[in-house]
Amino acid sequence: MTQLVVIACLAFDHRASADGLQKFKACLLQCPQVERVMEVCGTFDLIIQGHCEDMGDYTRGMEQLRQPLSEFVTRIETSFVTRTVDRDMPARSGALWLPCKDGRRRVEYRQIDKVVADGDYMRVHVGDWNCLLHDTMGHLAEELAGAGFVQLHRSWLVRIDFIDKLIHDQRRWTARLLDGTLVGVAKSHTQDVLRIVAGESPMGGSHSAKPVPNGDGSAIVTENRMKLPH
Questions:
Q1: Which CATH number is 165's domain given?
Q2: Which of 47, 115, 129, 227 has the most crowded Cβ, counting Cβ within 10 A?
Q3: Which residues does the UniProt record annotate as the domain HTH LytTR-type (predicted)?
Q4: Where residue 58 sits, what CATH number does that domain have?
């Protein structure tokens, strides 16, 4: 049987207690029909993607949520996906020529883990090796656009596959990298992070990220990383 794909946009009553809202979000994450929950900025505060067997199943599910919806939600708009169109965008290939002890070393984009601003230079990390490159973050972000990188804030550019977890707490996002580094996500780059959570990468690839409740009520998003050959 073909299932209905449901997209629900919720606006919260910001007079409600923060603790109550966190419990409500955690409750939504436990619903078997819910596939993905995205916190957003703008007209709505939360976007939920889920599925139902039919309209009757959807109506019954909404009825079960009637009490918390009336307590925490001031506006809800629901759409049903009837058709999706996927666009194939292969990862951009290329390389940077990086300074090394005896000259220049050719490093492919997919080998770079992260780029960190270091004064007037950019420190490019490739595994256990790194070097200082005289360049700007803006130019490197443009150079690596479409190659599977995301800018976390003005000083950090990271390959998506190098992100181990995205942690959300108190409306702030933090990325934990595979080397254990914790990097705060700037508000100006939150939408890029949300696209990762939603299963989209800046290069058009597909990621499956499922938020799960943390012990303190925050959300941890675990990435299914796309492996690249080294």
A1: 2.40.50.1020
A2: 115
A3: 98-199
A4: 3.30.70.920
CA–CA distance, 112 with 49 (Å, rounded to integer): 33
112 and 10 in a common domain: no
Residues belonging to the chain? 230
Say how many domains are in the chain. Answer: 2
Residues 115 and 12 in one domain: no
Residue by residue, pLDDT tens for the chain (230 residues) are 567 889 999 999 988 888 988 888 888 888 888 888 888 888 889 999 888 888 888 888 888 888 989 999 999 999 988 776 655 555 566 899 999 888 999 999 999 999 999 988 999 999 999 999 999 999 999 988 888 888 998 899 999 889 888 887 777 888 889 999 999 998 888 877 777 656 554 444 444 333 444 444 444 444 333 333 33
Residue 66: CB atoms within 10 A of its CB come to: 9
Residue at a domain's end among 55, 81, 107: 81
* Whether residue 155 sits in one domain with residue 67: no
87 in any annotated domain: no
Q: Domain span at residue 21?
A: 4-81
